[in-house]
Amino acid sequence: MDLYEYQGKQLFKRFGIPVSEGRVATTPAEARAAAEEIGGPVVVKAQVLTGGRGKAGGIKLADDPVDAEEKAKQILGLDIRGHVVRTLWIESAADIEKEYYLSITFDRGVKKALLMFTTQGGVEIEEVAENDPDALVRLHVDPLEGFQPWQARRLIYGAGVEDPSEQKQIASIVEKLYKAFVEFDAMLCEINPLIVTPDGEVKALDSKFTVDDNALFRHPDISEMRDTAAADPLEAFAREKGVTYVKLDGDVGICGNGAGLSMSTVDVVAHVGGKPANFCDLGGGGNAQGVVDALEVITHDPQVKSIFFNVFGGITRGDEVARGILEALDRLDMSEYPIVVRLDGTNAEEGRKILAEAGKPNIYPEATMLDGAKRAVELAAAR
Ligand code: GDP
Ligand code: MN
To answer: pTM value?
Structure first.
């Protein structure tokens, strides 16, 4: 889950990483009021889940509250690479003397967190890595040893920061950022730029914070930060139901068990000339309730014309899936949907028998994945 800049800064603040004072605003009038409260010149910053906002015109300095209102008008509604600006962060403007860069990511190759630091901040870090790789200091943190103070010193001296006061402030920020990274199960914590003001104060001017979705259950406060309005409503509904679901553009609803089989099902439907409406994975458990939830999500998509169930039972049992399908037919109004069912593996025969005995006119059993896909595509085309 990606956090907005202002949300990331809230977390920075909790850990004692210096940030500027600011307020959220969603209208030009609110921006003006925020600027009045903050006092002095402010920066009006688009809150969108993409970088490079500055270059796209999403970040503007404002001298006074009236100017802030004007700048807010210009930025609200702006489309930054497909992200429409609905929220602004109004922040006390900082004077910038130097722009540095600091980040922590996950280096999966070596199974360690990776610290990166350079005094050439403010620009895309990929650019620094390409044009001046020596300027970018990289250092791994062993998860068992944890962060060690010498590592911060190594970053600072390696990048050539000479001012002792800067050194001290940066070392403290690195340590706090690492704490935040571990504490919040982050996958990325990035400060670009980390600035030095003319008074010699070091602070985070921007924030990029990504939390591992799989750890969100441990962080209900962060879960709540999710901007459900910005997400696809159907995907938000799926998340609520705990269904692994990705909306696609076609009309054949797909439901498999396991990511691999579900993806193959998407491919096979496309292979026989159909258009998958979604990717949906029942997962390993695949109990009856899971099937009902998945069907509820799939049928929320108005584009869906037929549904293809492709289940290979392992831990998932065919009889359980069959019961789930029948339960869904009872509970949801699904009579308009032809449902093609291919069951194989554990208890498949039992499952097929349960479906046959139920005698539902809109259930179409098929023996193979290919035949099932063909049938589902035909049935979608016929509607
Ligand atoms: P990004 O473009 O999405 O990475 O957004 P940033 O928050 O990094 O801002 C982009 C640039 O705007 C920064 O590199 C600064 O040059 C400028 N900027 C942002 N905040 C301030 C500020 O408080 N004062 C000044 N002078 N410039 C700022
Ligand atoms: Mn930035």
So the answer is: 0.72
Are 45 and 35 in contact by the 8 Å Cβ rule? The answer is: no
Separation between Cα atoms, residue 75 and residue 130, nearest integer Å = 32
**Residues in the 5 Å CB sphere of ion ligand 2:** 192, 206
Under a CB-based contact definition with an 8 Å cutoff, are residues 34 and 68 in contact? yes
How many angstroms separate the alpha carbon of residue 255 from the centre of ligand 2? 40
Instruction: Please give the pLDDT value at position 283.
Output: 76
**Could you tell me which of 336, 279, 354, 272 has the C-alpha nearest to residue 310?**
279
Residue 156 phi, psi (nearest 5): -65, -50
Q: What is the pLDDT of residues 317-355, one digit of tens each?
A: 999 999 999 999 999 989 999 999 999 999 999 999 999
- Distance between CA atoms of 1 and 210, rounded to whole angstroms? 5
| Ligand 2 centroid, distance to 325 Cα (angstroms) | 49
Is 36 a catalytic site residue? Answer: no
Distance, in Å, from the CA atom of 32 to the CA atom of 27, rounded to the nearest integer, reads 9
